[in-house]
Amino acid sequence: MTDDYDEAVALLEEAVRATAPDHPARSGRLALLSSALRARYQAHRDPDDLNAAVARCEEALRLPLKDAAERTGLLISLGSMLESRAFRTGGAQDAEASVAAFTSASENCPVDSPDHGRLLHGLGTALLTRYECAGRLQDVDAAVERLSQAVAHEPGRGPEHGERLARLAWALRLRYGRTEERADLEAAGGYAYTAFTVTPPDHPARPERASDLGGFMVDHYERTGEPEFLEHGVNLLEQAAAAAGTHRPVALHHLGAALHRRYDARGLPEDLDRAIAALTAAVQTADPGSMSLLASLSGLANALHARALSPGAADAATDLDRAAGHLEAVLDALPAGRPAAAVSASILAGVLSDRHDRGGAADDRAGAILWGVRAWEEEEADADVRITAAFVVARMLAAEDPDRAADLAEAAIGLLPRLATLYAFRADRQAMLSRLGGSTGTAAALVLAARRGTDRQRAERAFRVLESGRSVLLGHALGTRGDLAELARTDPELVARFREVRGLVEHPVPEASPPVGDSKIAAEAGRRARAAAEQRRRAAELADLTRQVRARLGGFGEAPTLDEARAEAAEGAVVMLNVSELRCDALLLTRDDLTSVRLTALEPATVGRQVSVFRTAVDTVATTEDFAEVATAQDAMASVLEWLWDGVAEPVLTALGHTGPPGDGEPWPRLWWAPGGVMGLLPLHAAGHRTGPAGRRVLDRVISSYTPTLRALRHAREQARRQGAGPVAHHALLVAMPLTPGLPGGAPLSQALDEVARVRTHVGEVTFLCNPEVATDPPADGPAVRSEVLDRLPGATIAHFACHGTTHSTDPSESRLLLHDHQHSPLTVQDLLPAELDGARLAYLSACGSASATAGGGLRDEAVHLASAFQLVGFPHVIGSLWDIDDRTAATLADAFYTALRTGSEPPDTDRAAWALHQAVRGIRDGTDLPGPYDRSRNPYLWAAYLHAGA
């Protein structure tokens, strides 16, 4: 076949030479020669052929042409060839010229032209290549739009239609890689699946379509953790890589990446070895000097780095050397300013850092710092890439230059809030932030370990780091909340639009599972992609509206200054805990000072073990009926609470001057815990010793409350102030679920109706919702379903839920209360966000884990759970729980709590919520409802779960 190409090129070259420069046929013959040269390039990848094809096409365009259609066709051909060259070499100039050629062609290409679909497809592809050269998100947005139009322009079922679908799928995957919007990922899967099915099994493009679909499967696995997608992806990529063709280097690259992911999931060395073999083959078969080659070299370096760090690595030093060499080659070849350069520089910094730690070359430390700083200083790079690089450098500098390390880490944490504004969907923000889990704690530790400044100045810097880097998602939501009453009087249109757009942003399009096999899959994929684009537009509008509101209302929704934070500590100290590999500390914020206490008894490994012991014991008590096992588990819980007292609570309380119980007639001091990270999984308020002198328990010294940040506490206080102080007549929403559909045996809560009946005696007007099939006396006012609860909440001052709840392990915004319709219409954290509850005062969540953040992953600092959601939407006081609650105890404690809220016949005073819960929990612990000398001090499962969050 190569001889045929050579012959065609030779004949056409002779024809061009024989044609006079001013002959009307010359442009057409140059166009044919250009096409032949391009075909020969596609056959054996000689870049000289592509260069010559571009030159002949440009020469033809400089000649007089017979009509606009001929010019349009030549411009489309030129744009396509320039895009191919730019894609191969990474040349930004070619990418710009390609977009310009297609744009020029569009000026004389009407919608009904046979070239219009080809033009849209080519322009979309050129915009994608320009995006990969320059990293401008608007280019990939425009590419998705043009490629969607190309698909719609000529719908069909053949391989050509499959090519257009595949290119659109690739564009969506590229955008997903930047924004992590799941709608884009699932739309990409829809298009990739359809492209695969419309391409016949014997068609030359079938392996490439299999590679595309396999890549989507792996991406979907990375997002959801569903292993079947990973296995399907590997199988498809193996098929694609086994077939011959120009697609094979890319298929080998994706196969290597998929096998690397499978190694991460299963830990089997053979997966990593196979990944390295596939990526090595990709490097060997890629076009010399191509961007595909550089991508495969980078992937190979990643895999070699992972093998060097794996347990029992046979030749770690060689693997690290090879990884560093490949990355240096990539960085030498990448054009300046390419987004991939910052990624490769960040990875190289990590490789050199690890090689330095293993006694590598003398200049590895300097190299790690050099490349890490280069990645950090690339301001156009993605924030997560810059943050990762900054922490590599900060760790390298920590021992010899702690001040520079602290400065860099502090600056990196300053980028975290940007992530909350870049992604339109809450779950997408979570996916990005989860990979940076622990960064805030490390930065605070580095700041506290710095040499520059006084102890107080270092504590103030650490406070700013923790306040900025914790609860980023919650802080983003708080940034659009505040008192708008005054502005509503002077500019009602601005406030109305602000509230409308905020509601649309905080309640986005529901995400469905990716469809498989549906003939309408591409149409649904397009709908989801358009919904994601609309959501991004709304997020941008909300940011603009927020700026307008802040220009009129200074400080609206903004984080408190240090002086403002001290003012919030006037009612009691705020304790911010920080656990990191470097050191563990408590920051103590009072009305007059901000200090730090080194928690020398803590270290991350010990904290992790104690959390594991505690949670295992909680699960045992909740699930077993064996008395001996329950007793052992309760003892394990009590032992962890003693460790928590010795290592955290006692040093903190002593530093604050709370050295014993308050005297008779003295007011109980208050204290707010801001635990952060893994410490938020333990009941700090319940820390203490079972035996020994009185007062060796937190409950006997202070009233504890919780807040994720000072900003959240200030929000709760503002809500409380707007409601006014003292007891008022209440309208309570009471929700009971004695049986829960979908749970084994209905998971009966035998005391739920009794609990609600007791609460009813303490509150005023009541709306009561319950299972529709459960008969109650008095009858329920409606079913306990999502829509009823959301409709009734705005009219309630008190909301009390006696039901099951769940905490989502990977997506805390999907944590939910289990109402009657939870299987198909769950009431989640995300559902609560659009609510505007101006009269809310108290939410009591007598539900499992309503105040517990996810136990795993990188989102522990985010404090995204049901209790924080109720606080965000307007409840200044929230009662929640850290684990499954004993049904009988729940009813008793609720009765005691509401009793303590009241004085005589007065209605409940919700401002006493923290004190009332403290009294109720102490009463349950001390067995005030039990006969004789019995108490529950050795059974913390029954009383230690309850906590107060808020004002």
Strand content: 5-15%
Mean pLDDT across the residues is 87
Percentage of residues assigned to helices: 55-70%
Name the shape in a single word: elongated
Q: Report the total helices.
A: 37
Strand order of the largest sheet: 8-7-6-9-13-14-15
Q: What is the rounded distance between the termini?
A: 79 Å
Category by helix and strand content: alpha/beta
Q: Radius of gyration from the CA trace?
A: 32 Å
Question: Could you describe the largest sheet, including whether it forms a barrel?
Answer: 7 strands, mixed
Number of beta-strand segments: 15
Topology readout:
Elements: H1 2-17, H2 26-44, H3 47-61, H4 68-89, H5 92-106, H6 116-134, H7 137-153, H8 159-179, H9 182-198, H10 206-224, H11 227-242, H12 248-266, H13 269-285, H14 291-309, H15 316-333, H16 339-357, H17 364-376, H18 383-397, H19 402-413, H20 416-422, H21 426-434, H22 439-448, H23 455-469, H24 472-478, H25 485-490, H26 492-506, H27 521-552, H28 562-568, E1 572-579, E2 584-589, E3 594-598, H29 604-623, H30 627-655, E4 670-674, E5 703-706, H31 710-723, E6 731-736, H32 752-760, E7 765-770, E8 782-783, H33 786-792, E9 798-802, E10 805-806, E11 816-817, E12 827-828, H34 829-832, E13 842-846, H35 866-872, E14 877-881, H36 887-901, H37 913-926, E15 946-950
Parallel strand pairs: 1-4, 4-5, 6-7, 6-9, 7-8, 9-13, 13-14
Antiparallel strand pairs: 1-2, 2-3, 10-11, 11-12, 14-15
